[in-house]
Amino acid sequence: MFTLDAHSIDKSLPVPVGTQLHGLLSYMLAFGGFAYGERLPSVRKLAADLGIAPMTVVQVYHQLRDSGLIEMRQGSGAYAARPPVIEGAQPSAMALLHDDIARLLQRASQINLSTMALVSMINAQSAMQVSHRTLKIAFICIFPEAGSDYVRQIQPYLAPGDEITLLTFDEISQEGAALDSCRAADLILTFAHREADARRLTQSEQVLGLRLIPSQKTRQDLAGLDPRAKVLGVTYLKDYIAIMRPSIREFAPHVSAINVTWSSSETLAADIAESDAVIYATGADHIAALVRPSTPCFEFRHAPDPGGLDTILAPKLAQIRLDMPVAT
Description:
The protein is 43% helix and 17% strand. It is an alpha/beta fold. The chain is globular. The strands form 4 sheets. It has a 4-stranded parallel sheet with strand order 4-3-5-6, with helices on both faces. 30% of the residues are buried. It has 4 domains: 17-80, Orthogonal Bundle (Arc Repressor Mutant, subunit A), CATH 1.10.10.10; 93-130, no CATH class; 136-212 and 305-323, Response regulator (Rossmann fold); 216-300, Rossmann fold (3-Layer(aba) Sandwich), CATH 3.40.50. Strand 3, helix 6 (144-154) and strand 4 form a beta-alpha-beta unit. It has helices spanning 17-30, 43-50, 54-66, 93-110, 115-130, 144-154, 169-172, 177-183, 195-202, 216-223, 241-251, 268-273, 306-323, and strands at residues 70-73, 77-80, 136-141, 163-168, 187-191, 207-210, 212-214, 230-235, 257-262, 277-281, 297-300, 302-304.
């Protein structure tokens, strides 16, 4: 993840520095730039590093606190909000499970029981114990196409019979079937930086925010850029324009010429014409039609953080099943 320095804020852009800083920090907090519980820079230090007013940093920190992304501790500073605590689950639960599986396989080998026979026994017993404990899950996204991709990557963590419904924030922003579906779900999934919004809109406490990381394909595409290329990064929203340049540079440090803009800019067509490669944020895919066929053009796509799926989502799903009443 990129670092915060004097180049992080571009004062030549027609976007307030406070808006740029909020976009940078919310992105870093949601996508792994700060570890859970990690202390953020002090107001004075961050203001000095970025060359902006301390009051601007204070206002942004308050906004991040209200969004549930950071915790403000009296006399200590700001910290990345910790992941949800799953009652009864241990931090090393997945590691312990792997050890249990290894011992079970060893025991099966000692009695000459094949691996396939062992799997069949586990499946049969699992079906008897939890077949009635299927879950209804809602995933709230911003853009449906990307949301469908995220759901496909979450699917392996679900049990047979579980249902996952894809909804958008626009759909649940008003009363109707989409909002009712969310409120009836056993668990609502969304992005870490939109968790507070999801709780507010659904009035549900069963909301889990997932962290995302740049997808493997995105990292590969960025690494493959020609170092001589004039690269254009296009964001969908002005608020997140400041993250495009450092996000591209993180995986393409060999490229020096990186310009940024947003998808509704009046100079977008001219900026694209002057570029040798175009990378657009999710949601701005319509600009691909403006790019010459010979010009490299691809989406900066994210993917659910596998570590978060293993250590947060999987235990959460298991705990919900355990808490469900047993059918009689």
